[in-house]
């Protein structure tokens, strides 16, 4: 069975600073990996995903994530935080299109002016 | 393009009252459909998923039920709400087959049980 661990339920960064949100997964087969973003009282929006191919994946709003098989990680980064990046970020894993995604518990990102 | 609609957006209900949340998907056919609940600090909890009309898998035993009367319609119901049913409910869909299982979410329904 797959699982996802997100280290840190709350991360706070200064505006302009590096954003690093951590995600580790467990899967017995090659996974598909996702990062979603959620603003208050809204649904989840796909930020980026890894399926196959290039391990560095670029997403919307300047975010990117790197799939590292040896570390079973898929950390999310952004070089310079903006106030509008304040939101909940959720990592997820799947192994096929016919099984439900498994989600982490999420990390709330705060950006301080 | 595909869209997903979920309603109502906000609901305040007394304990013991019934519940009906509806979700419809447009622009695709034969999707997988899902209901999730999100409680503070607990992440997304999968409640039900459906691979076709009348086919419902329940992930968590509770007083909620789900139905799929039409291909692109998914309904979450309860006969008698509990305080613990309060939360943010999300409907989602995914494509069948050999894809990644990427989920597309609705805007959510905030349920408060008093």
What does this structure look like?
Chain A has strands spanning 3-5, 10-14, 19-21, 24-26, 32-38, 44-50, 56-58, 64-68, 73-78, 87-94, 102-103, 107-112. With 113 residues, chain A is mainly β. In chain A, the strands form three sheets. In chain A, strands 2, 5, 6, 10, 11 and 12 form a six-stranded mixed beta sheet that branches. A four-stranded antiparallel beta sheet of chain A has the order 3-9-8-7, with no helix packed on it. Chain B has 114 residues and is an all-beta fold. In chain B, strands 2, 4, 5, 6, 9, 10 and 11 form a seven-stranded mixed beta sheet that branches. A four-stranded antiparallel beta sheet of chain B has the order 1-3-8-7, with no helix packed on it. In chain B, a hairpin with a 3-residue loop joins strand 4 and strand 5 (43-52). Chain B is globular and about 40 Å long. The relative contact order of chain B is 0.32. At the A-B interface, strand 5, strand 6 and strand 10 of A face strand 5, strand 9 and strand 10 of B.
Structural class by sheet pairing and helices of chain A = mainly beta
Mean pLDDT of chain B: 93
In percent, how helical is the residue content of chain A? under 10%
Counted beta strands of chain A: 12
Number of helices of chain B: 0
Strand content of chain B: over 45%
The helix-and-strand class of chain B reads: mainly beta
């Amino acid at each position: 069975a797959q699982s996802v661990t997100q280290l840190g339920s709350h991360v706070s960064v200064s505006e302009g600073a590096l954003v690093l949100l951590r995600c580790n997964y467990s899967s017995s087969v090659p996974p598909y990996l996702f990062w979603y973003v959620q603003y208050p009282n809204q649904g989840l929006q796909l930020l980026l995903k890894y399926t196959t191919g290039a391990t560095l994946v670029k997403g919307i709003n300047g975010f990117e994530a790197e799939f590292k098989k040896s570390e079973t990680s898929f950390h999310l980064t952004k070089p310079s935080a903006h106030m509008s990046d304040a939101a909940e970020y959720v990592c997820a894993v799947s192994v096929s299109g016919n099984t439900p995604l498994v989600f982490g518990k999420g990390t709330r990102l705060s950006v301080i002016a | 393009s595909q869209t997903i609609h979920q309603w109502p957006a906000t609901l305040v209900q007394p304990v013991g009252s019934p519940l009906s949340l509806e979700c419809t998907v447009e622009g695709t056919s034969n999707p997988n459909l899902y209901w999730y609940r999100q409680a503070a600090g607990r992440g997304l909890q999968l409640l039900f998923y459906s691979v076709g009309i009348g086919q419902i898998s329940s992930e968590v035993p509770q007083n909620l039920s789900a139905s799929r009367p039409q291909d692109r319609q998914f309904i979450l119901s309860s006969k008698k709400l509990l305080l613990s049913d309060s939360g943010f409910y999300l409907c989602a869909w995914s494509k069948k087959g050999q894809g990644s299982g990427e989920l597309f979410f609705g805007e959510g329904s905030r349920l408060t049980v008093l």
